[in-house]
Design a protein that fits this description.
The chain has 228 residues and is mainly beta. 0% of the residues lie in helices and 46% in strands. The protein contains no helices and 20 strands. Strands 3, 9, 10, 11, 12 and 15 form a six-stranded mixed beta sheet that branches. Strands 8-7-13-14-4-17 form a six-stranded antiparallel beta sheet, with no helix packed on it. Strands 6-1-19-20 form a four-stranded mixed beta sheet, with no helix packed on it. A hairpin with a 2-residue loop joins strand 9 and strand 10. The two termini are 17 Å apart.
C-alpha cells in the first residue's frame, strides 16, 4: 500500500490550523445520505513560512457505532468498532463485513466476514434489527490517523446503518484541505468551510502533493511529486 504525503505551506500573514478530509466514497444507492467527517487537524502553523504535513498509508477500514442523536452537521462521531478491509482487485475479492447488534449497540461480526467481486470496493452487510431501536446506528469508511505514529482509526464518511442492507463502498483518492480547528470525527458542511484545496491522486503514481495558502486565503493548485 502506498504512503501518501500532503504538504501545506502557510504563506498567509496569520498563524493557521489546517484540516484534512477524504472525499465521500462512491457507494450503492441504499446508502442514502453520506456525511464527511474531519479526518485530522494540524497543530498551529506559523505565518509566512510555516508548513503542515499529513502522511498516511492508503489502507481502509469499515467503521460503525451508535450516536446519541441522528447524524448531522456538527455531530462528533465516535466509533464502537472497526474492521480492516481489502478492496477488490483482479487478484482478490472485496471484503464484505457483517454488521450486527450487540447489547443495544452495533458491531461487526469479525468471525463471519465474507467477500464479493467488485474492483476498488468493499462491503458492509447489515443484519435484521428494529429500526426504531437502532435509528442512530451508523456505519461507513474509516482511515488511520493522517499523522505518523498515531494509530487511531477515524471515521471519514458515515451514514445511517439501516437493517437488511448490502452496502458497497468504493473509496476515492481525493482529499481536501481547509483551515479550521474542528476535532477529528466531526461532521462538516463544506459550504461553511470557505476556501479549500482539492488534491486528487486518482490515476497518479506520485505520492506527494504540495499546496500553498496565500495571503488572500486562497490555495494554489497542487504540485505532485515523488518521494526520492
Amino acid at each position: 500500500m502506498a504512503t501518501v504525503k500532503i504538504i501545506v505551506k502557510n504563506k498567509s500573514s496569520a498563524n493557521q490550523q489546517f484540516q484534512i478530509f477524504n472525499d465521500r466514497p462512491a457507494y450503492s444507492t441504499s446508502v442514502g445520505e453520506a456525511w464527511i467527517n474531519v479526518w485530522g487537524r494540524s497543530p498551529g502553523i506559523g505565518a509566512k513560512n510555516g508548513t503542515a504535513q499529513f502522511q498516511f498509508v492508503e489502507e481502509m477500514f469499515a467503521v460503525c457505532g451508535m450516536n446519541p442523536e441522528p447524524l448531522g452537521t456538527g455531530l462528533v462521531v465516535s466509533t464502537a468498532d472497526t474492521q480492516p478491509v481489502k478492496l477488490g482487485t483482479d487478484k482478490q475479492e472485496a471484503t464484505d463485513v457483517p454488521l450486527i447488534t450487540d447489547h443495544g449497540g452495533v458491531v461487526f461480526d469479525a468471525a463471519n466476514i465474507k467477500s464479493f467481486k467488485k474492483d476498488g470496493s468493499f462491503g458492509i452487510s447489515s443484519g435484521t434489527y428494529n429500526m426504531d431501536q437502532y435509528k442512530n446506528a451508523f456505519c461507513g469508511l474509516g482511515r488511520r490517523s493522517p499523522f505518523p505514529g498515531q494509530q487511531d482509526i477515524v471515521p471519514v464518511s458515515v451514514w445511517q446503518a439501516k437493517p437488511g442492507q448490502k452496502y458497497q463502498i468504493t473509496p476515492k483518492r481525493v482529499y481536501y484541505i481547509s483551515t479550521g480547528s474542528f476535532v477529528e470525527g466531526r461532521i462538516v458542511d463544506f459550504a461553511q468551510l470557505g476556501a479549500y484545496a482539492t488534491i486528487d491522486f486518482t490515476g497518479r503514481t506520485e505520492t506527494i502533493a504540495t499546496v500553498e495558502l496565500d495571503n488572500t486565503l486562497s490555495y494554489s493548485a497542487p504540485v505532485y511529486s515523488f518521494d526520492n
